[in-house]
Specification:
By secondary structure, the chain is α/β, with parallel strands linked by helices. The protein folds into 2 domains: about 5-130 and about 240-335, Vaccinia Virus protein VP39 (Rossmann fold, 3-Layer(aba) Sandwich), CATH 3.40.50.150; about 135-240, Putative methyltransferase TM0872, insert domain (DNA polymerase, domain 1, Orthogonal Bundle). It has helices at about 25-30, 45-55, 70-75, 95-105, 130-135, 160-170, 170-180, 185-195, 205-215, 215-220, 225-240, 240-255, 270-285, 315-320, and strands at about 35-40, 60-65, 85-90, 120-125, 255-265, 300-305, 325-335. The protein has a 7-stranded mixed β-sheet, with helices on both faces. The two termini are about 40 Å apart. Mean pLDDT is about 90; it is low at about 1-15 and about 110-120.
Length: about 350
């Protein structure tokens, strides 16, 4: 899906011309929001953004991403929307600043479309985790399936890389990262093996070290034995969970009444943070015992569009393997008096 391939296909940003996950559901959830700003906090190649701008002519995009290759791909894909699409290089924890900057810009831009109706954020999308193009690019060092320098940075201007984590962290630091962010029960064994194998020069070597550290009986099931460790290191390098918690709070703070937020997560650590944030907002942080009337004065700021999460169907997984692990949660902001 996306733009047809051409002679420009060899350019790096074309690696992001991939099919967005569960795009029809995302568009359906956001189609009925009021006209306003559509904040795509993890823009990627712009696949979801293009579909939603097509479906909702009253939305004006502010798209954020940390990845320079993704930004180039999104700029190309969204060029046809002209002034309706603004792309900002930023982490989604910085989204409130990006929205405020957009508001100031459009307020003085006399050519902007209906600026009086586009100042409120009425649609927000987070598509979390690492993208397929990032995994597939051997130069980025995200994958355990090819040999490359351990990098794993979504923002390649930041100083911390996977190589520094692997070769510079202490045993205790490595065990904490792998155990907490990878939910890996053999974190201590893996951390010790990494320390003993230093220096580790490429991702293939790292994957072999992890595989050897995991007991043979465990290697025979559950996918590649290095998957959890690579996930953990990537999360550490990019501060993904900290960024997510900050970004969700900031997004709910700028979401206008009647606006909706959709979050797509791909592993349990992300989904727990999203679930808790949405639950707290939907209950107003109520501390009263379950089943009893609220007397603590809590005021809900959102309503859940579904109890639990949407998951991909078998057909959707067949069409896009990345959909297999996705969990989608959505909320709608309510007026203060609601």
């Amino acid at each position: 899906m996306g733009d047809p391939r051409s002679d420009e296909a060899a350019r790096p940003h074309d690696r992001f011309a991939h099919a967005p996950v569960m795009v029809d559901l995302v568009v359906d959830l956001l189609r009925e929001v009021p006209d306003g700003i559509y904040l795509d906090a993890t823009l990627g190649g712009g696949g979801h953004a293009a579909a939603l701008l097509d479906a909702h002519p009253g939305l004006r995009l502010v798209g954020l991403d940390r990845d320079d290759v993704a930004i180039a791909a999104a700029a190309r894909r969204l060029r046809r929307f002209g002034a309706r699409a603004q792309i900002v290089r930023a982490a989604f924890a910085d989204l409130e600043q990006a929205v405020n900057t957009h508001r100031r810009t459009t307020a003085i831009d006399t050519t902007a479309i209906d600026t009086t109706a586009t100042q409120g954020v009425t649609a927000v999308l987070f598509d979390l985790g690492v993208s397929s193009p990032q995994l597939d690019d051997p130069d980025r060092g995200f994958s355990y399936r090819s040999a490359s320098v351990p990098d794993m940075r979504m923002d390649r201007s930041q100083p911390l890389t996977a190589s520094e984590v692997v070769n510079g962290y202490s045993y205790a630091q490595l065990a904490r990262v792998i155990g907490t962010f990878g939910e890996e029960r053999f974190a201590s064994r893996i951390a010790r093996a990494i320390i003993e194998a230093r220096p580790i020069h490429d991702t293939e070597q790292l994957a072999d070290v992890v595989r050897t550290a995991v007991p043979a009986a465990t290697r025979r099931h559950g996918g590649h034995p290095a998957k959890r460790t690579f996930q953990a290191i990537r999360i550490e390098v990019n501060r993904e969970l900290e960024q997510l918690a900050e970004g969700l709070d900031a997004a709910m703070a700028v979401l206008a009444p009647g606006g909706r937020m959709v979050v797509m997560s791909y592993h349990s650590l992300e989904d727990r943070i999203v679930k808790r944030a949405f639950h707290d907002a939907a209950t107003g942080g109520c501390t009263c015992p379950p089943g009893l009337p609220c007397v603590c004065g809590a005021a809900p700021t959102v309503r859940l569009l579904k109890r639990g999460a949407w998951k991909a169907s078998e057909d959707e997984v067949d069409a896009n393997r990345r959909a297999e692990s996705v969990r989608i949660r959505a909320i709608e902001a309510v007026p203060e008096s609601a």
